[in-house]
């Protein structure tokens, strides 16, 4: 009995069919529109949560008047420790950077990149002084460095607590806690906390 | 005769259904109502002014006038003196759950001292097109 297709053609058809079926099953990659109502919600921390915490912190901080000055000068803020006490591996800059951008935009606070708990955030601040030793660099073009000391420090913690609601559901709570310290007196001049609570399947993971 | 009336009304009904329900309140020209918001949101007052630190701030007092729970979505947009939009983290859609007849207060502060005017977009999160379309100014 003769077959309709040769063995090779059958293989090609079978392979093509497999590829077509496989590509049909793959979820389509798509861009998310900011603010879309159908934005997926996860049990873990998402960009939306960091945005919410940042907006809350900046609104509370600026409306408190803690960074207002009458002498026309700007506050210089240093980023102290922001502790990640969650079960997730997160970069706390997702929170801090947004706050820094908004405070800079307000014209009231500038953040030092030359001073920090673990040295300069921008290491060029330290490396710059070594340029004086280099013969390749025109010394007349060098500027004398004079770092401005911070007068305020931002510190905080992100906390996660998981609680079982019933057999099927769990409650995951996140707390974004921040403090702004006046370094002259060592006093917290502003403190804020944004709780974000999510309820979902107990089978899901939040890390 | 009935057929004639129905035929005449049908295109009008369809047109009304298709239009984007973006309404600017005559009492509060800064507020732009997107689809659905006007049906449940009653504005009590709109107050704006400057903080001691010269930042523009806005407070909206409203009430969910409907007898069901609603999710209000809102977004603030800030403009400088020349009318250009100012980038801000607050210029994002936010949601607020409201119970029937619950009073609502929305307070926002422009994070830039350049902000001199604003628009607030309001919509029902569960409406088909929650974000007002077209010219946002």
Automatic annotation (TrEMBL), chain A:
Keywords: Signal
Cross-referenced Pfam families: LpoB (PF13036)
Keyword Signal among UniProt keywords: yes
GTP-binding as UniProt keyword: no
Top-rank lineage group of the source organism: Bacteria
Name assigned to this protein: Penicillin-binding protein activator LpoB
Signal sequence interval, chain numbering: 1-22
Lineage: Bacteria, Pseudomonadati, Pseudomonadota, Gammaproteobacteria, Oceanospirillales
The species this protein was found in: Amphritea opalescens
């Amino acid at each position: 009995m003769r077959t309709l297709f040769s063995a090779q053609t059958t293989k090609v058809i079978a392979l093509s069919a497999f590829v077509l079926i496989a590509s049909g099953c793959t979820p389509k990659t798509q861009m998310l529109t900011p603010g879309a109502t159908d934005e997926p919600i996860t049990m873990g921390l998402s960009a939306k949560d960091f945005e919410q915490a940042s907006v809350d912190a900046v609104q509370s901080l600026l409306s408190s008047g803690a960074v207002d000055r009458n002498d026309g000068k700007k506050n210089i803020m240093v980023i102290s420790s922001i502790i990640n006490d969650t079960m997730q591996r997160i970069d706390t800059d997702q929170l801090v950077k947004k706050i820094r951008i908004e405070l800079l935009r307000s014209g009231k606070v500038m953040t030092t990149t030359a001073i920090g708990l673990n040295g300069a955030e921008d290491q060029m601040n330290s490396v710059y002084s070594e340029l004086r030793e280099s013969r390749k660099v025109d010394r007349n073009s060098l500027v004398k460095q004079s770092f401005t000391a911070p007068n305020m420090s931002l510190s905080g913690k992100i906390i996660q607590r998981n609680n079982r609601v019933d057999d099927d559901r769990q409650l995951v709570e996140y707390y974004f806690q921040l403090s702004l310290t006046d370094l002259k007196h060592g006093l917290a001049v502003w403190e804020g906390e944004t709780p974000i609570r999510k309820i979902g399947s107990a089978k899901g993971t939040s890390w | 005769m009935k057929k004639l009336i129905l035929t005449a009304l049908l295109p009008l009904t369809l047109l009304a259904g298709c239009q984007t329900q973006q309404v600017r309140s005559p009492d509060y020209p800064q507020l732009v109502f997107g689809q659905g918001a006007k049906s449940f949101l009653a504005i009590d007052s709109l107050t704006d002014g400057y903080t001691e630190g010269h930042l523009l701030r806005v407070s909206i007092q409203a009430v969910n006038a409907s007898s069901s729970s609603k999710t209000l979505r809102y977004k603030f947009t800030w403009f400088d003196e020349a009318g250009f939009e100012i980038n801000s983290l607050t210029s994002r859609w936010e949601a607020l759950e409201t119970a029937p007849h619950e009073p609502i207060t929305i307070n926002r502060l422009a994070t830039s001292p350049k902000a001199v005017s604003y628009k607030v977009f309001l919509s029902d999160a569960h409406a088909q097109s929650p974000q007002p379309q077209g010219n946002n100014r």
